Amino acid sequence: MAETEQDSSVNPAQSAKQLDSGNIQGDEQTPDTDMAVGSSLLAPEPVKSPPQPQPKPRPKKAPELPIFECKNWLIHQHYIRKEYELCKSLIKEELQESQGMCEYAIYVQALIMRQEGNIQESLELFQTCSLLNPQSVENLKQVARSLFLLGKHKSAIDVYNEASKMNMKDWEIFHNLGVCYLFLKEYSKAKENLKLAIQYSRHEVSFQMLARVYLLEHDVDMALDIYKRAVEFSPENPDLLTNLGLLYLQTGQFQRAFEHLGNALTYDPVHVKAIMAAGSMMQSHGDFDVALTKYRVAAASTPESAPLWNNIAMCFFGKKKYVAAISCLKRAVYLAPFDWKVQYNLGLVHLTMQQYASAFHYLSAAINIRPKMGELYMLLAVALTHLEDEQNARRAYEQAVLLDQKNAAVNLNYCIFLMNHGERKAAVRQFSVFEQKLQEARKHSATVDQELLDMAARLGPSLHLGENLVWNKQQGADTANSQHPGKAPVPAAHTNDVPPPAEDRETTLPTAPPAELQPTAPPPEPDLDALPSPPSHPLEEETSSRRERVAVPAD
Q1: Are 459 and 419 in contact (CB under 8 A)?
Q2: Which ranges in 463-531 belong to alpha helices (H)?
């Protein structure tokens, strides 16, 4: 034990000496070495620092993994600028680098394919996106939309139902479901889904589609209510105001119709549909110059509109400029060769100009397009009568009477035809049917043209029916009803016995495109105004110069 203590007492001095000797390497020994040793013994012992760990060698840099989405921003920029060729080249490079695993590049490529009309190819690409990201609702919605555009409405409904399970409150899904059910004519389900879409998020297009469903069910009151709610939600939308005005026009509320059409033109002075509707109202009241001024504004923005040129032609017709009317109608028939209204009016104008062969040609074309319209057969019978084809004229009148069970003018014209050919008993029967239809029209408060009553009043004595006819007692009441402020006044007869013809009012409610769906079904046929009558038959001069009267066609 003593030896170990002695050794331990010596060790500090030795270590100090070693430290001092290490610090003065290279220095010469001095006589004061003993003093330096003594002072070193008195100095405090230095504290040893723990050994510092040596830094590990830096590992090698890991290889960079390829990023599939690195060019998405550039693809997006070119796509929104509609630079599709550059976008396609970038997509091709991106798909080569990612080996077809870049979802966004495939998505944009599918959108471009759809815009170019390649719907089937776009569907396949969207399905690929759905496989890459099965949890994406947007991919499923795009797949369903492509199916819709291909006309596969039931398949689109199945996909939309799958998407609705992922997002229960997406208004767009329910809106598009309603549109699909609309084209499948399942109106109850269409209304249910469209109401859900409006409940989750109010959009103008959903209101328009819901109103369209009610119109297809012939529920005009509910359609009016829907459009009123839509106008309250968006009071400055010219499309909604125009559609509401057209509905008021259809129900005979002309003051409200003109008010809403005026509001639509206030917010958008060049809104073509509002201009067409307002011009048609002016035209029906005989303000042809004002209507032409309105149409001139619309022609600047839509010079290739067949309904526009049809209405312009009818303005010239009302001003008795028949050559200009035929010229405009020829342009309209060039733009829309399958529009029966244009063919109809061309036949009427040619009848007025006593060009019966041309009238027969255009009326036959209109009948081929609308074979179940009785007024067309009546006009064709008039043309055949003037062409001295009695047999075919009789067959045309019989077909007109068979197809049209409401228009009293058909029976009156047939009565005149039979009277001119000496068939008095058959003429009396047709006149009796005319009276019955006239009474039915009064029960439904329908406006009766005074010219029809005057014509029948002259025909009655010729048939030895007397002047005290059933409908003749209420002739004054009908005249008062025709001037009622809520009804449109009956246009005055022209000197050539031709009242204003049919017009294209553009009264069909637009199929507002749904939230990513373009409408594919044609809208319902528009209503028409009063139609012109052909010239009177030469044999009618002794009884009436206005017997062969053309009635207002009803769709």
Answers
A1: yes
A2: 475-482
A 10 A CB-CB count for 361 gives 15
Whether 64 maps to a domain, the answer reads no
218: left (phi over 0), alpha (psi -120 to 50) or beta: left
Distance in angstroms (rounded) separating the CA atoms of residues 453 and 440: 15
* Residue 112 and residue 79 in contact, taking contact as beta carbons nearer than 8 Å: yes
Residue 367: closest CA among 384, 355, 353: 384
Most distant CA pair in the chain: distance in Å? 171
Predicted TM-score of the model (pTM): 0.67
Residue 64 backbone zone (phi > 0: left; psi -120 to 50: alpha; other: beta): beta
Euclidean distance between CA atoms 546 and 452, whole angstroms: 9
- In angstroms, what CA-CA distances link 340 with 337, 347, 361, 375? 8, 11, 13, 12
- DSSP class per residue in 213-252: HHHHTT-HHHHHHHHHHHHHH-TT-HHHHHHHHHHHHHTT
Rounded to the nearest integer, the mean pLDDT of the chain is: 78
User: For 493-544, how does the pLDDT look when each residue is reduced to its tens digit (9 = 90+)?
Assistant: 232 333 335 555 443 333 333 333 323 333 333 333 334 433 333 333 333 3
Residue 507 lies in a domain: no
Q: Is residue 281, in this structure, part of any structural domain at all?
A: yes
**pLDDT greater at residue 520 or residue 76:** 76
Expressed in angstroms, the distance from the first to the final Cα of the chain is 130
Token pair 């049919």 in the structure block, residue? 502
In a domain, 239, yes or no: yes
CATH of the domain at 282: 1.25.40.10
122 pLDDT exceeds 80?
A: yes
Burial status of residue 146 (CB atoms within 10 A of its CB: 0-12, 13-18, 19 or more)? buried
Is residue 123 within 8 Å of residue 147, measured between CB atoms? Answer: yes
Total domains in the chain come to: 1
- Tens-digit pLDDT profile for residues 30-50: 444 444 444 444 555 566 667
Q: pLDDT per residue over 58-75, tens digit each?
A: 766 655 555 666 788 899
Tokens of 317: 């017709």
Between the alpha carbon of residue 470 and those of residues 414, 438, 443, 465, the distances in Å are 20, 10, 14, 10
Which residues form the domain of 229?
Answer: 219-264+271-302
How many Å apart are CA 174 and CA 161, to the nearest integer? 9
Report CA dihedral (374, 377, 382, 388) to the nearest 10 degrees.
-150
pLDDT tens track for 222-247: 999 999 999 999 999 999 999 999 99
